[in-house]
Amino acid sequence: METAGYTTLARQSGLMREMQLIANNIANANTTGFRQEGVIFAEYIQTADVDSSVSMASARVRNTSFAQGTLEQTGGQFDFAIEGEGFFLIETPEGQRLTRAGAFTPSAEGTLVTPDGYPVLDGGGAPVFVPPGATDLAVGRDGTLSTEGRPIGQIGVVRPLDALQLVREGGVMFRSDAGVEPVEVPRVMQGFVEASNVDPILQVARMTEVQRAYELGQSFLEREDERIRTALKTFIK
Question: In this predicted model, what pLDDT tens digit does every residue of 164-189 receive, in sequence order?
């Protein structure tokens, strides 16, 4: 295959990755706490000698948008949303994870857990406990839980020490390899959840653009293949 074919295939591969991410974004447009993803295209230039070079495209870096999603009121006693920066701290079998999805529920033991059963942690890394039968649970703006007018704990709101090292795990979970620190002035809202920050209309429009670009590249590869076949037939005769 000639250089033109390799460079086009590299571009096609990047466009395919972007289409997959866009499709995943659209599928999660209604997923609580979901963060939109995209890819970053980079150009690599390989120089063979002084007079020639080859430009190759790569789209292996995934970019996550942490823009605030719409806060939707649910009225749920155990539904929480963070306004501004920060993440809820969750304990999973693989270790502590961060999430913006705050639709929690108390377990049979009274521990506040995610829909997957993972415990919600306080700022110190301990599970948040809710007394069984508590019907007047209230949560302050700083995440402090109280019942019957007495504080019983505090939901941890943290931020990564290095946002560039956040690694997505699953749909709404992130791993912070650099560690986390408490948010100084957290803003937690009870009875709300944060919607996905995906804009479906923009994502569909981008999908159309990517599909057209991919089809253009495919047409080029087909024409290039036909050109090479014609040249070979000519040389063989």
Answer: 889 998 789 999 999 999 999 999 99
Identify whether the C-beta of residue 145 lies closer than 8 Å to the C-beta of residue 151: yes
- Residue 162 three-state SS: coil
Q: Give the neighbor-by-neighbor strand order of the sheet with 150-154.
A: 138-139, 144-147, 150-154
Instruction: Please tell me the distance from the alpha carbon of residue 25 to that of residue 4, in angstroms, as a whole number.
Output: 32
Global pTM reads: 0.82
pLDDT in tens, 10-35: 778 888 889 999 999 999 999 999 99
Distance from C-alpha of 98 to C-alpha of 42, rounded to nearest angstrom: 29
Closest CA to 156 of 168, 144, 167: 144
Q: Which residues contact 9 (CB under 8 A, 6 or more apart)?
A: 1, 221
Quote the CA–CA distance of 94 and 57 in Å, as a whole number: 35
Name the 3-class secondary structure at 155: coil
172-197 burial: b if 16+ Cβ within 10 Å, else e: bbbbbeeebebbeebebbbbbbbbbb
